[in-house]
Amino acid sequence: MSSGIARYIATRAVASIITVLGAVILTFVLTHLLAPNPAHIWAGPHASASEIAAITKEYHLNQPIQIQLYYYIIDLFTFNFGMSPFFKQPVSQLILVYYPRTLILIAIAMFISIIIGIYSGAFAAVRQDKFGDGIVRVAYLLTWSTPPFLVALFFQYLFSYYAGWLPSGQLADPSLKVPPFVTPILPLNAIIFGDWGFLSSYIVHSILPVIALTAISFGIITRITRSSMLETMKLDFIRTQIMKGTKMSKVVYSNAVKNSLIPVVTVISLLFSFLIVGSLVIEEVFSYTGMGYLVTQALYNYDYPTLIGSIFVIALSVILINFVTDVVYAFIDPRIRMGER
Amino acid sequence: MALSTTWAFLKRMMRNPYSAIGTVIMILFFGWAIIEGILRYLGPALGFSNAGYLLLPYNPFSFNLSQSLVSPSLSHLFGTDSLGRDLFSRVLYSIPIDAAISVIVVGGGIVVGGVVGLTAGYYGKGVDQVNMRVTDLFLAFPALVLAMVIEYTIGRSILYATISLIVVWWPVYARLFRSEALRIKNMRFVDSAILSGLSRMQVIRRHFVRPALNTIMSYATVDLGNVILTYSILSFLGLGIPPPEPELGSMVSDGLSYFPQNWWWAILPGVVIVLIVVGAALFGDGVRDYLAGE
Fold first, then answer.
1. d(C-alpha A337, C-alpha B291), whole Å
2. Contact between B274 and A150 using a beta-carbon 8 Å cutoff
């Protein structure tokens, strides 16, 4: 049994590494072969001739293509993404500052989405084709179909401009100074420096983006839980429970839900991709300075190194999450690791 | 024949209120797109340079600073922007582009994904491995993020936006086509087709492509809405058609700094996106039920 798991993990790991290498090659083809003029695009539109010459030399753009690929791979794996022409900082440093901020939002939103999604999915499945089911389905159809920026605007209006409960945007109160960078985790830095004012302001300012991210993503979980619950409710052990006279709510929310959790694991990486894309525009609406800010600023200011570094790190995260969920899945469901799928 | 099946199909779709809503939205959306598209692109060729504005309440490009930031009313259904341009006309003007992009991207995705997925499923083994590794690779990037970078690299324009979307759109279809091919491969009728002396291409075309397309049709209909949604995010981020051309996503982002005082600017074009996407989803569900019922 355990060797089955080990072998499964090993094959998944190899597949993930191949995908990472593929992602490297894909971005290389894009940046060095498809780009009409690589040196120009790396240097930005306003670069002088000498700057372009320097870029050409730095990125080895005047050398044969295989040499370029060699340096490219070395640089990517040492997380050397070059200097950002707009921020005037190393791209890896920028990512280290901005990415964790977004990851915190995404992690919290993911957690809440999964809880809401599982309960709303179970709620809908039990009332299949009845009124409650209809409401839940309309809700997730709407959240699926609404562009993230509109969802963000809706909550911004509701909680900030109309009710006045929450600030309308920014990472924290702009009059407060962001604590110095010690760890990549911003709230931890605030704690280290005992900056409680900043910490509480940061938490309050993060609530709206988390609500918006949760709203755009819980439908994925609702839908998969609903359909797997519909399957589970037909299984013998559930029917036995019902016939034995166990309270319906107990059957549904403790027995059936547990069995329906397995498929939820498989959509975690989809959920993550969805949240990353959502955070790009949601952070723009809330002027929240996270990864979305970094990517959109790079986009608006022709900052190519930052853009490529960011999407490479995002792709790495997706591949990593895919790998982890595959492994978790194998532990939960023995059929997978025995190759029965 | 074709007309009567269309009629039967529409009658069936109207029976369920949800798919009826979807059908009406889709007919309005594509109907308008075709009429406006013909006027705009054929009109100038026939010597009517303003044909594209004929059916619009106002010229979508003309400034009228005395009418700037007017809230929605009967004369300006969606209000006006800071330059006094009528937002309803601008929304109507942008629709043919969205319709064209959605059809081209889904169509392109089906063609590329079909070739990759069907060959993977049909030949199996090494071909399957290679094709599916490449597919997985593209799926490792969130679609919008990859499309954004591709378009940024090759150049910002409507054509490049469409190409970038196709590049990120086919992998899902490759997976769908592959699983269809795997399902069909072991069926008896494939063996009998081969035994009856049909060439390999004929077998693939008749017994793989056609049934697979049938299954994928309802997904593709829902997907039209997903393309419009994703494209609206691209244009929100400034990667759509350059201004002054109107675009649903870019209208929202232009209206952001006027929110919430002049809420209609950001909100109403966004609501139109929601309507179209919901319409495509409901219509797609209806198509699925219709095909399942056949």
1. 36
2. yes
